[in-house]
Amino acid sequence: YIFIREDIIGICANQRPLYVRLCKKNLSPNGCVSELEFLLDSDINSVKFLIDFKKPNRMSTADDIALDRLTALPWPCHAHILKLLPLRNCLVMCLVCKYFNQLIQKEVLQDVSMLDVNDFYGQQASNCLSWAFRNKLTALRKITASGHSCLEPLLTACHLPAGQAILSQLTSIHLDYVNQLRDNQLSYLLAACPNLEVLALPRCSKLTDAAAITIGSLLPNLREVSCRDWTALTGGGVAALAQGCPKLEDITVDGCFRVGSEALAALVRLCPRLRRLSIAKSYGVTDSALEALGEHGVTLEELCLRQCPRVAAVQHLTRCSRLTAVDLSGCVNVAGPNLLAMLSGCGASLVSLQLNGCVGLRGEVLAAVGRLCPGLKLLNVRGLALMDEHLRDLAASCTNLRSLCLAWCTQLTEEGLRPLVARNPELEDLDIEALYLLTDSMLTGLAECTPRLSRLSMRMCHRFNPEAIVALVEGTELRSLLVSGVLDEARTTDLVSRVRRVRPHCELKW
């Protein structure tokens, strides 16, 4: 039995999420549980928030009315409503009665294109995948899972006819933190998935160059791949992958510290469609990689070189005129003239620029950043030695910001920050952590100038008072507020209570 909200018809018409709850019900011995044992095998308590299996003494009048509302609708509405629900809720509703079980099997499951089992743990995740491979989910194209428990059902499916049929139609697999996945097992799995276009295997730390070679040999149509934190991966493996995947558009090799400049040069040379490259935390990436990117990477749109300390000559990226996002955070050797030379070529298209911890940059660069990047929406200059005049210069030409991080720019005051926020009324995300000199008047200015502000970090801004903070919450659209280190424990507790009264769903961190 299901309780449907009063505005059910409006929800259907407007395609908004539908909220339902399952009333208490006793499952009959011939109930529809066989196809859903993954919800029940491991721990019955894990689904008590969806179903309570204790039989009520009597059905309430409200439940009768709720059931009448539902059955009064034409049957096509039932299928339409069910398709608005998350897959997990639909599966649990199969337990309600035979009618819903048949309706979901016929109308809902055949349209399921993505299966995400990250909400399940241990045996539940394993059983969920096993269930999926036993059923004819003809529209399934994407599987997302994490943890070692998802490995066994994937490998088992490789030699079952039903499993093979599903694997062969997949175009995307995302397996996170599957530590037990080895090179030979990946080869076995990928052989059953010839149509993959997206393969993400972050934190699968046992994989080596052999896995990269396998990917290159078996997946010629691959467009996106993530090898994050494959600590054994080297440049040779990346080059082999690039050789076999000429259609590659997006690659992540963050944390692969054995991958260096030669591998990046091979990537941009062998993959002419490459539009996104991320290689964070690699000491092997040098300026020679930037030369190759400037020569062959003209199609690049996003580039992340975060914490690559040997990178300096970013002026080689001048020819990458399609770049929309650049992350140079932690590249301590990048100097102002080199950055400005880069921006003279790609600044017109840049939307996101992250310079967190680029201590080689001086504040005077900011004025040119605003002038050369008129469409900039995200700017991160955390930890730079900035003064008020630098922000005023930036404000003169930077007016489209949605996200701004000034954390640990400790010399800034309201005199510099207020003109900048006044010129950027669409600002939604602001980080002013450790700006010790700011006072309550700055919060008043934020409420006046940035009504759409939804996230604010004011950690360690100890001059702010609770009254000003609450007034800011009332005057903006804040949904996330970080206030640790602002007040003492007692006043923080009181502040949290007051904010929650004003904005019950605001996420607070203190």
Automatic annotation (TrEMBL):
Return the InterPro entries for the record: F-box-like_dom_sf, FBXL15_LRR, Leu-rich_rpt_Cys-con_subtyp, LRR_dom_sf
State the Pfam families in the record.
Answer: DUF7885
According to its UniProt record, where is this protein located? Cytoplasm, Cytoskeleton, Cilium axoneme
All residue ranges annotated as the F-box/LRR-repeat protein 15-like leucin rich repeat domain in the record: 168-312, 320-473
Out of the domains of life, which is the source? Answer: Eukaryota
A GO BP annotation = SCF-dependent proteasomal ubiquitin-dependent protein catabolic process
Name the predominant localization: cytoplasm
Q: Which GO terms describe its cellular component?
A: axoneme; SCF ubiquitin ligase complex
Q: What is this protein called?
A: F-box/LRR-repeat protein 15-like leucin rich repeat domain-containing protein
